[in-house]
Amino acid sequence: MNLLILEDGDFIAADRVLLSGRRLKHLHEVHRAETGDSLRVGRLNGLMGSGQLLRLDAQEAELSVQLDQPPPEKLPLTLLLALPRPKMLRRVLQTVSSMGVSRLVLLNSYRVEKSFWQTPFLEPAAIREQLILGLEQARDTVLPDVTIEKRFKPFVEDQLPGIAAGTLGLVGHPGDYPACPRAVEQPVTLAIGPEGGWIPYEVEKLNEAGLQPVQLGARILRVETAVTALLARLF
Amino acid sequence: MNLLILEDGDFIAADRVLLSGRRLKHLHEVHRAETGDSLRVGRLNGLMGSGQLLRLDAQEAELSVQLDQPPPEKLPLTLLLALPRPKMLRRVLQTVSSMGVSRLVLLNSYRVEKSFWQTPFLEPAAIREQLILGLEQARDTVLPDVTIEKRFKPFVEDQLPGIAAGTLGLVGHPGDYPACPRAVEQPVTLAIGPEGGWIPYEVEKLNEAGLQPVQLGARILRVETAVTALLARLF
Asked: Which residue positions does the secretion signal occupy (chains A, B) (predicted)?
């Protein structure tokens, strides 16, 4: 935890918060914090700054906070991601949040196993938990906007053309395609497939919606690694 | 497993292998393979090609193999990595292997907890296992060369100048440094610090050995994510 994230419900005054639960445990066990210590804090979807520990015991911690710095800029990116397997989903959500993605769409694909849609990790509170872990890691406060689209065709036909309009639209796909561009200057809409890749019909539909296939070389990367590699190359 | 890796001990003739254990289990449970199926195979540190399943039962699988394709090129990179915590180490080894790093040095640093050096995941067989998982994922056959340096100063003073000579030497370090370069054309020696970063003395010593500090922006990434992001940007 490189940033202690404060939520609206933590505030007992404009510059005073009370913490318990996971964050209190982390202060005790990892930070080994003591009264008087100063910590980096940030208000969820708001400013960052510093907090001073006024009081810390087994039940709660009280901090006085000063919030005066803006969070880092987000990447101007809408990421469409074929739903990964549940264990990978949790890590990918953290990565997406850490790297500053603005908007994530978890999308169905032919090669997404139907059982993946049953995971409790897709519940809003579970998604939010992983996103916050990513923000704490990266020192950011702004949650990415995450939506779930269980039907590929209506999403790609009806919504994607509007999302992709005015952006650089790309589909990560192995094969004889141009290499993924580097250091782009415009907003991007990027689609990354499931293990085993998109099927040709899906590549065609994504293409019709304005996304051009690009590749990253012969190596097949895990979804989490591919997301990081494509984002690091694009921005 | 996108490539079935064959080891010398598997060969019962120049074009014939017998498999058991983990790979047999994978053929049964994940590939749901049957006699006659064709699979992508590669000989460890050798060529890749295809294998045909001649026989498959609960005890073993026999394949006839044809090996005629070179593995993908390695990145011309020596990566010095402050030893990560054991759980992260396993994933980082897979990532390093998947991404095609030629040479990895696991190095001590002031902020590496001493207990990390006690992990069984540092034993040669455990390291090799993770590297092979990475090769299977990426479709590569060539193991990276991994060495372990438990003493920072003698390694950085005595060996690193020779390793870094004739390469672009870089230290990933947050702060007011130039941005990490993109799409470089020469071999690279890159040092990535522990959680919490290198201490100033270490940055100075790495610098004296020929490595210049570069940064990746304000966001603090987990070690595994930072490795992937730096490599994707550099190559």
From this structure: none
